[in-house]
Amino acid sequence: MSTSEQLQFTTKAFKMMNKLRLLKVHQDANYNSVVKPWILVEPSEVHLSQVHFCRDFEFPSHELRYLHWDGYPLESLPSNFYAKNLVELNMRCSNIKQLWKTELLENLKVINLSYSEHLNKIPNPSSVPNLEILTLEGCINLESLPRSIYKVETP
């Protein structure tokens, strides 16, 4: 897909993908301009894909294990987002402000929210007991880290 195209996400478009385990939306121009400022790109060459959601959008599967979405455009995950099976959440350069509040996610091992400049809260480590990697580089609006994060033991 060309980087200048519009992309419409609807529940209907994903309806038959009930066993989807990996969803990857990559917006390279956004990632390069934020994370790799030394890569010079002419302004006329930067055409970010615009991703639009229908109002009732639901993520396609309860089987989703890997969600990789550079430049995620919304401030939060949809309220019906089923994250119990999630192993890796990679949302660099996203507009997300906060993830879930209290949901226990025993399978989640990797969270990468680097350069998500609107992020102001992260989940309590007790909600992700098997977390191995947490990347928050460039999250300039992160208010504070939960106190319990300092008590996390490394193997």
TrEMBL record:
Presence of the UniProt keyword Endoplasmic reticulum in the record: no
Alphabetized SUPFAM superfamilies for the sequence: L domain-like
Protein's UniProt keywords contain Ribosomal protein: no
UniProt protein name: Disease resistance protein ADR2
One Pfam family recorded for the sequence: LRR_3
Species, as recorded: Vitis vinifera (Grape)
Keywords on record: Leucine-rich repeat, Repeat
Lineage: Eukaryota, Viridiplantae, Streptophyta, Embryophyta, Tracheophyta
Biological process terms in GO annotation: defense response
Signal sequence region: none
Source organism superkingdom: Eukaryota
Family annotation (InterPro entries): Disease_R_plants, Leu-rich_rpt_3, LRR_dom_sf
PANTHER family linked to this entry: DISEASE RESISTANCE PROTEIN (TIR-NBS CLASS)-RELATED, LEUCINE-RICH REPEAT-CONTAINING PROTEIN
